[in-house]
Amino acid sequence: MSLSPVLAAAVVLAALGSPGTVSADSVDPYRAAGVQRINGAPTAPLFAMTTLDGRTVDSTSLRGKVVVVNFWATWCGPCKDEMPALQRLRRNLDERRFEVLAVTTDREPEAIRQFARILNVEFPILLDETKDVSAAFGVRGLPTTVVIDRNGRWVGRAVGPREWDSPAMVSLFEHVMETPR
Description:
The chain is an alpha+beta fold. It has a single domain, classed as Glutaredoxin (3-Layer(aba) Sandwich), CATH 3.40.30. The protein has helices spanning 5-16, 24-27, 29-33, 77-92, 109-118, 132-136, 167-178, and strands at 36-37, 48-51, 56-58, 66-72, 98-104, 125-127, 144-148, 154-159. The termini are far apart.
């Protein structure tokens, strides 16, 4: 039995996915957002760092929140480009359930302050003076961003700049916030 050309085309379109069909990207929020899912969700490296204003942030105190840790530098053009999107993302999600941290190995506090002031960065800027935290997360290029779930598991990673406040990103973070413990 042979299919008519019209029926054959319909079968091919159905197999490939036509408009309105659920795609793999719409099912996997990590892929849709352009964030690599970390298989097995290992426990994220623990850290305690000092902020630019002298406070200490300990990663264990953030349990219960989804945490985005963005590794950046003042000399990194793409880092500068993505900071406003991180700021908008931080403002748009529930601060009781979500946190953004910016980690830098820069050694010039005044240059960091100026960078933060120009870009209106309101989330904590952490100083990785020994580069131990950057090494623990395998940071080799900037910007690198990691996603830690509410249980302290490392669930995502993105190398390179992203539109952190895009609908796909917001959907990803809402998904991670809603994932059962």
